[in-house]
Amino acid sequence: AIEEALSCNVPLIVWKVKYMSQEEGANYPNIPCTNISYWDERCGEFFEEKENFEKTYYKFIDKLETYKPRTYILENLSPKKCGENFIKLINNFDL
Question: What angle do CA 59, 46, 54 make, to 5 degrees?
Fold first, then answer.
């Protein structure tokens, strides 16, 4: 869903979790994870601690017109780019 929003040129503010237990609670072990594996500064803002949400929100609003998430998607995750990466992978595969 994150990449879909970014492809529609919608910048996001995201809570970047480090462990499953951050989102799902104490019933989950501290399994390392990420929810924004494809991201750069053109996509929006993220925060890692809940306490930083308000500060990040105001930064996000101040910079709202500067984000270019679709550009990031086209450069990194478009079908053309993924196809090129797949071909490189195949060409570098030793049998």
Answer: 50
